[in-house]
Specification:
Length: about 270
């Protein structure tokens, strides 16, 4: 499918199907970068959804808009993309996601703009010549395919190697929650000796929004012992099932497997309903 666009006396033919694919890949790269930088840990499907929403921006090819209307259109689409990908928890969460989206977009846009120009030296200096498609599109296409394959391989690796791998949501209260990659450690028997509640371990960076008072629980491990900072939270949801009879222990150190942000034990799984 071809679509013709006039640029100051020049006629440029664009394949719309290719344009949609490239636009999708650009949005996929940007949203994936934001997801990685902010450690939002959203599922790949949400990133794909946000990227598909972003392709709606190509409708401007068929609509005559003023500069202000065009700016407003792009802002609204970008907001919908961010919400579609990362959800909406509160205003600060949304604004941070949106600002990082714009920042990554500008950085990637600058790189694309640079590579999209052929340049050469002449007796008059450095001469830039605009491409119709440009090297940048090939670059974006290759990078997008690479990221997609990387996501797919990482997902399959976790599924194949870690049968005890789960995606779970921990609700601190009615508004605040985190979605994390969890590992079922059958050797983890950590419990509060006073309440006999099981304890799941959560990396410190994901426990920032817990507002209840800490409970300090004594623990012993192979390499260390002391008091573990724990909190009462609302519930944990795993595969649509939930449990609320447990404590969250905050881990100061990274866990033994890359990509794992929470350690759960078998007693938690038995209590799911």
């Amino acid at each position: 499918m071809k679509y013709s666009i006039f640029f100051i006396g020049d006629l440029m033919k664009v394949y719309l199907d290719l344009l949609f694919i490239l636009n999708f890949l650009l949005d996929f790269i940007i949203l994936s970068a934001v997801n990685y930088i902010l450690k939002r840990n959203v599922k790949e499907g949400r990133v794909v959804l946000g990227s598909l929403i972003g392709t709606v921006t190509l409708l401007i090819l068929f609509i005559k808009l003023s500069n202000f209307e065009l700016l407003l259109y792009k802002v609204v689409i970008s907001m919908v993309m961010v919400i579609g990908t990362f959800g909406y928890k509160d205003l600060n969460y949304f604004i941070k996601n949106l600002l990082y989206f714009y920042m990554v977009s500008m950085l990637l846009g600058g790189a694309v703009s640079f590579f999209d120009n052929q340049f050469s030296y002449s007796n008059k200096g450095l001469v830039f010549k605009k491409n119709s498609l440009g090297f940048s599109y090939f670059f974006v296409f290759i990078l997008g395919v690479f990221l997609f394959i990387k996501y797919l391989k990482a997902f399959k690796l976790l599924k194949n190697n870690y049968s005890n791998y789960y995606r779970c949501e921990i609700f601190f209260n009615d508004k605040d929650y985190v979605s994390v990659n969890a590992f079922l450690d059958t050797g983890n028997k950590l419990k509060d000796p006073y309440s006999n509640k099981s304890i799941i371990l959560l990396m410190k960076e994901f426990a920032k929004n817990i507002q209840t008072r800490p409970i300090y629980v004594p623990y012993n491990s192979l390499n260390n012992h002391g008091l573990l900072e724990c909190y009462k939270v609302q519930k944990i949801v795993i595969d649509g099932k939930e449990c609320n009879d447990f404590l969250v222990g905050v881990s100061e150190e990274n866990f033994f497997m890359d990509g794992i942000e929470c350690i759960i034990n078998s007693s938690i799984m038995e209590g799911l309903k």
